[in-house]
Amino acid sequence: MRRYRRWLPGLVLLAPSMIAIAVFVYGLIGWNFKLAMSDQHDQVTAGKFVGLENFTALWDDERWGLAVRHAVLFTVVFVLGALVLGWFLALLMDKGIRGEGGFRAVYLFPMAVSFIATGIVWRWLMSPAPPERGVGLNQLFDSVGLGFLANEWWQNRSYGMAAMALPAIWQMSGYVMALYLAGFRGVPDELREAARVDGCTEWKVYRYVVFPHLRPVTLAALIILGHISLKIFDLVVAIATKQIIADVPAVYMWVMTFDAHDPAKGATIAAYMLLAVAVLVIPYLVWTVRSERRA
Amino acid sequence: MRRGWTAAVAVSLAGLLAVTACGGGGGEQGGDGKQAATKVEVFSWWTGGGEAKGLEAMVADFKKKQPGIEFVNAAVAGGSGTQAKAVLASRLQANQPPDSFQGHAGAELLGYIKAGQLEPLNSFYDEQKLREAFPQQLIEQITYQGNIYSVPVNIHRSNVLWYSPAVLKEAGLSGAPKTIEEFIAALKTVKEKTKKIPLSLGAQWTADHLLESVLLGTLGVDAYNALWTANADWSGPQVTKALENFKTILGYTQQEAASTDWQVAAKNVVDGKAAFNIMGDWAAGYFKELGKQPKQDYDWAASPGTDGVYMWLSDSFTLPKNAPHRAAAVEWLKICASKEGQDLFNPAKGSIPARKDADRSLYKDYLAWALEQWSTNKLAGSMWHGVTVNDRWHTEIDTAVGLFLGSRDVPKLQQALAAAAKNSGQ
């Protein structure tokens, strides 16, 4: 009896959330994979097991290839853009600036806005209309004599998704800045001073002392941005609605599941999205656990 | 210690209850038959503007005629029915259907029909003498394997060419083009002689909408209607010609089309920024809201090559199987089918009744023209708006058109459309 008393209350306390997670997260992931490996391509048929057929067939689908290309381009531009900009802002803050609190708040504000709201504003800003009918940025460029900068933004067939990443960078770079700033502040002053005493220039202090300390921050930011990017849906729908020109896997999944009523294909796309995120997250988790053990 | 123990149990039990309560909610069922007849839950996506007003007018009529039945309006807002359809699908799957739900008449309902979720309404049609009240061709086009599954409340027209008389005058054009060839020539003239947009287009779905008008205008009504039957010929030279026309016409649209919604695309015409726009007749209601004058700020005609053909679409109400209050639902369908109900709903919504015996004095301007056309024209079902294709086919056409907007490759589009017809499982 006494032995139970030690661990039972804890277990009982945790049980509801453990059960909920088991059912609503892992249970549904399992169900999704079961659906993805069936031939239930409409609402009616029961669907039988077909193995990985849907997973291979998807790559013959022109639209899927396009959606993946779009997602990759978006991810590269968004993740690099937000990392570099966030890092740079944090560096400026770290150098000491008057009214730092105010700047920090301003840069962080976009985080409080939803992707839908961001999308609606940037849809207008990035209107691809030519100058004579132009609004937003194209009109601005035109009126300050930079008309040659006016462009098609996200409507460009080859690099449009890079433009789509701009609002996402705007929204998330403040958050990355906060992460990096914490990283910068985590480097003890004694270390910097020791380096300076040893004759380091200010640049070398950063290059050899501060930056190496930022690696875990960079990795964490990479994971957070990467998984947002691979699942991106709301921003794309708010800016472009469900058009092929800006198709991404999450939008395609929605279309197959809720418009075409093809549960198996929708589940297959969802499974690929989960795998793509898992490729990012699982090595990170393994790495974290290992480094914690070492410490 | 003992205290802490019980508190822990209580907290975790409360948590468990909260979790299970999520699954247990919404299980309300009409008990006995009598109790059940006291209310009717009607599901639609009519939540704003003229649609909501029209629905309210019908509901008022329903309350007058059936004072004993409580009307529950289960309308879901958002995205011309997209959200509503997602909600509806989950309710039907959980076997908790509303008593009646809105759906586009025609093949869009096939998913529900094949899943056995709808009751056939043949005997209702006979009792209410609807086979005589609706045009013969409409009855044919909504019959699936001998059964009719919904009651059309209104009729919209898809093949309407809206144009700006001012811009046409500026380009030196005398009136609306009658054929596709004339249309292409007119677009060219507008482009050369004015700085206006020749054809105002919106986001991808408006290109799908344009495609059906171009197909109908090039192929003619019989060949168009045959496209949606089992022995359709999507690979023939006529379809190639239609798709070539589609490509040429798309060449006269504005660069920012993809970031334009249909309202802005249509507004370009009444604002004198564009010469033409092909959009369904809900545009007329929108122009009225904007305070624009018909025949002055804008004018209309059948889309090129489709004079004498009414490409229709319709909102209709259904009778789901296992409707909790079936008798009340039938009473609701009676209102939907009746002359009074349709004449209350349609002037507010900006559409015309499906019935041939509507009160003509209620319909003005564009609607008077549409009503006139409805009684004399041949009928073709709209592809994009759910009459002729099921959801899968619909999505595949949309994908093919979306890819075509990038590639402008006609043979590839034709192959994709032929494949879509074959794979539709319709």
From TrEMBL, chain B:
An annotated GO cellular component: cell envelope
Cell location: Cell envelope
Keywords: Signal, Transport
Main subcellular localisation: other
Superkingdom of the organism of origin: Bacteria
UniProt key word Transport: yes
Pfam families according to UniProt: SBP_bac_1 (PF01547)
Signal peptide: 1-23
InterPro entries recorded: Bact_solute-bd_prot1 (IPR050490), SBP (IPR006059)
Function per UniProt: Part of a binding-protein-dependent transport system for a sugar.
Family per similarity comment: Belongs to the bacterial solute-binding protein 1 family.
Descriptive protein name: Probable sugar-binding periplasmic protein
Native source organism of the sequence: Bailinhaonella thermotolerans
